[in-house]
Amino acid sequence: MAFLAPLCPNLPTTSSYLRSSKLCSLKLNKEEDKIAFMITPKSRGHSLKVIRSVLNNRNSSINDSGVTEPAKILLERLFAQTQKLEEQMSRDSQLPEDVQLVLNLEVLESDLHAALAALQKKEEDLQDAERIVLLEHSELKRAKEELEQREEEIAAACSNHEQLEEELKRANLNLASQAGQIEDLKLQLKEKDQDIAAAQSALSLKEEEMNKMRNELVTKSEEAAKTDSDLQSKARLLSEANKVMRKQEDELQGLRKAIRDKGEELEFSLTLRKLEEEKLKVAEANLEKRTMEWLLAQEELRKMAEEASKHAGETNETLEDFGRVKKLLADVRSELVSSQKSLASSRQKMEEQEVQLEKQLAELEEQKRSIVSYMASLKDAQIEVERERVKLRVAEARNKELEQDLAMEKELMEELQEELKKERSSLQQAIQEMSFLQEELERKNTEFEEMHNILQVKESESVDAKLEIQHLKSEQTTLQLILEEKDLELLNARKKLEELNQEIGELKMLMNNREDQLIQATTMLKEKDKHVQMMQDDLYDAKLKFSEAETVVERIVELTNKLVMSIKVEDSDAMRAFDDMGDKFLQQLLEKNKDDFSMHKKQLETELKLTTESLRMKEKEILGVQRALTIKDEELKAVLGRLGAREEELKRLKEEMKEDANDLRKLYSLVQERIGDRSIGDLAIEKLQLEAAQLEVEAATCALHKLADMSRELLNMVSLSIDADSDIGVFPENGSDTRIGVAEQSKCLTEVSLEVTRLSALTKQLVQEAGIVDAE
Fold first, then answer.
1. Choosing a second label site near 441 at 20 to 30 A (CA), which of 230, 586, 600, 675?
2. Distances 43 to 40, 75, 78, 648, 737 between C-alpha atoms, Å
3. PANTHER family in the record, alphabetically (predicted)?
């Protein structure tokens, strides 16, 4: 832009000023690069923290505002500076303002370099974010592997649960068979009771017949009593005689027994005496042996004393042995004294027994004499008894007839009694069978109770297994939901990364276009500088020609001054003509320079206007992109807020499910407490109620699965809405699609609320039924 040099005397210094400004801009760019290089680690750390918070927090928004804000600020600065340049270009087109334009262009270059550095930072941060996303993806794979292991554990628990159910079915079949057997035994007991009642009725009839026979016997016995009274008067004498005879015989027998006893006692005393004599001999022999041992021990003690006197050094060790030996000797002495005392006492006893035996022999001789006198008196009494027996035989013949009649009646009574005994034996057998059946019933009842207890234990185990399976399934579902959420977050993060990469690509394209435009502008400026230098050269040539013309004019003036005096008239006319020619030539030269300058200025103004218009168009495009990005950020924030609310609802539903599971456990514990006082029918009713509760729980789990599916659909709808929002950012005319997505999301929310109300109604119903069961 040095083509204005002829007009301003200070213009030759503009090239140096431009060079110095370029150097300053280069220094500033280097300093900005250094500052950017110093800032990048902090921005990287900040971006890493942002990305980690995005991946760890579910409710955090996936937004890179910490990285995109500096680029946006720089772009806004660029647009503001371009607008200032346009305003300056539109206002005036003077030389110092052109210099400011050059400076502003250099500032634009520095800002563009700063924007490029910020974009490079953003690329590095995005690469770090991609690495973190890959790490999170590996962690998700590990979590999926853990989920597979959990699924295997759940499958093993399900197999165990199926085995327990099969065992329960078998136990139920065994219980049913045992219940049938018990019912059969009860029927048999009823039949036996009926048989026993019939036998008892028959016995009562026979007892009545026996009573009749007894009455007849009583009448006949009265008749026999009358005859007996006659015979008794006659038999009294015989009985008295018989009594006397019997007494005498008894006395004789007693005397004989006493004699025999005395003889046996004598023999026994003799044998005892012999045994005691033998014992005395043995004791004397033992005493002799012990005395010999005692003497030997004393000799040994003497020897030991002599040895002890010899071995005075070992006295301390042998003193204890001497003490022990002395104790043994004292014990032996005490035993000898006691044995001597026992021998003396045994000898005294033997002497006393000899005296008693002599007394007993004298008594036996006296008894023999009395027996002989009794024998004589007995013979006289027997003769008298035989006489009276002859008289009694006649009376006995009469009594025999009566006795025969009584015998016949007794035989009948005996036959009846035998029949009664047989029937009683049959009754006893029936009673024994009844007792045996009752024992079997008790045994069956005990077995039934044991099986029932085993069934209760297995049912509790099955319920615990079911609860564990449900807990594992709930954990699996929660982990799956978490994995799905993480997958969705990863997908959203990837989409955001792709969008950011696209934005970076667009910004790079814009920056490349701007760089191309800057390069073009710099090339144009260089060309214009060359053109200005050419114009300066032309002006310098014109100045030289002008100076030459001035010298020529001065020479002509000198010549004219010399010729003034000679030829005044002719010279004056010639000078006027020459002056007119010089003025015309100078005017033509100046007009040519002005026309060239105006043409160049107009060309430069038109080029600047075109560049400003292109910059305005690009600024408008960038502003539209920024507005679309802000709209997208707002929509993403709204969607993430909805997702956070949805996650809170899911957490609340999970807590409600846990509360429902705890309520079910409480119900089961209450049912187990109530089982102890219930019968089989009550247990069956409670089993049916438990099955109904299990069906309701399954319905609740199905509803929860539906809720999970609805949440997945919601997440898919959210992802679709995010895609639709990205489409809106590119094509802002499609606003109706977002409204449709919002309407669908509201429908999904209403469906979720309906499912939640249904779950709450199911839990209330379960609690009410549990309260009814407790009341029953």
1. 675
2. 5, 18, 22, 32, 37
3. MYOSIN HEAVY CHAIN-RELATED PROTEIN, SYNAPTONEMAL COMPLEX PROTEIN-RELATED
What 8-state DSSP symbol labels residue 59?
A: S
Pairwise CA distance, residues 170 & 106, whole Å = 94
- Cite the beta strand spans of 105-257 per DSSP E: none
Q: How far is CA 668 from the centre of its chain?
A: 19
Query: Please, which residues have CB within 8 angstroms of residue 262's CB and are 6 or more apart in sequence?
Result: 360, 363, 364
What would the mean pLDDT of 427-448 be, rounded to a whole number? 78
Q: How far apart are the first and last CA of the chain?
A: 106
- Would the pLDDT of 468 be above 60? yes
How far lies 446's CA from each of 343, 453, 679, 730, in Å? Answer: 69, 10, 15, 83
Taking the C-alpha atoms of residue 495 and residue 341, their distance in angstroms, rounded to an integer, is 123
> Nearest 5°: phi and psi at 92?
-135, 165
Locate 465 and state its tokens: 């297994």
Cα distance between residue 677 and residue 666, in whole Å: 18
Tokens of 584: 């015309």
Q: From the CB of residue 629, how many other CB atoms can be counted at a distance below 10 Å?
A: 15
Tell me the three-class secondary structure of 706-756, residue by residue: HHHHHHHHHHHHHHHHHHHHHHHHHCCCCCHHHHHHHHHHHHHHHHHHHHH
Residue pLDDT, tens place only, 62-78: 344 444 445 556 556 66
**Cα angle at 631 between 630 and 636, to 5 degrees?**
95
Place of tokens 């008196």: 377
d(C-alpha 658, C-alpha 669), whole Å: 16
Note whether 650 and 481 are within 8 A (CB): yes
Inter-residue contact 265 to 440 (CB < 8 Å): no
Q: Per-residue pLDDT for 10 more than 60?
A: no
The single residue listed with the structure tokens 């038109």 is: 606
Q: Which pLDDT value is given to residue 82?
A: 64
What is the mean pLDDT of the segment spanning 268-292? 78
Residue 517, both tokens: 């435009």
**Is the whole model's pTM more than 0.90, yes or no?**
no
User: 398-414 pLDDT, tens per residue?
Assistant: 777 777 877 787 787 77
The torsion of the CA quartet 184, 189, 190, 193, rounded to 10 degrees, works out to 170
Amino acid letter, 729: G
CA distances from residue 471 to 419, 464, 661 in whole angstroms, order as listed: 76, 10, 9
Distance (Å, whole) CA 156 – CA 153: 5
Cβ atoms of 125 and 64 within 8 Å: the answer is yes
**Contacts for 705 with CB less than 8 Å, ≥ 6 apart:** 477
As given in the structure block, the two tokens for residue 264 are: 């046996």
Over 60: is that where the pLDDT of 683 sits? Answer: no
Distance CA 518, CA 108 (A): 9
The full DSSP string for 409-464 is: HHHHHHHHHHHHHHHHHHHHHHHHHHHHHHHHHHHHHHHHHHHHHHHHHHHHHHHH
Q: Averaged over 201-223, what is the pLDDT?
A: 76
**Hey, how many other C-beta atoms are within 10 angstroms of the C-beta on 611?**
20
Q: Say how far apart CA 32 and CA 28 lie, in whole Å.
A: 6
Rounded to whole angstroms, what are the CA distances from 419 to 206, 209, 408?
9, 12, 17
What's residue 557's pLDDT?
A: 64
- Average pLDDT, stretch 226-233? 72
> 3-class SS at 567?
coil
- Evaluate if residue 275 carries a pLDDT over 80: yes
Q: How far apart are CA 652 and CA 637, in angstroms?
A: 22
523-526 long-range Cβ contacts below 8 angstroms, 24+ apart: 524/607, 525/1, 525/102
Question: Closest Cα partner for 636 from 532, 772, 530, 489?
Answer: 489
DSSP secondary structure code for residue 2 in this structure: G
Residue 108 and residue 114: Cα distance in Å, rounded? 10
pLDDT at residue number 712: 62
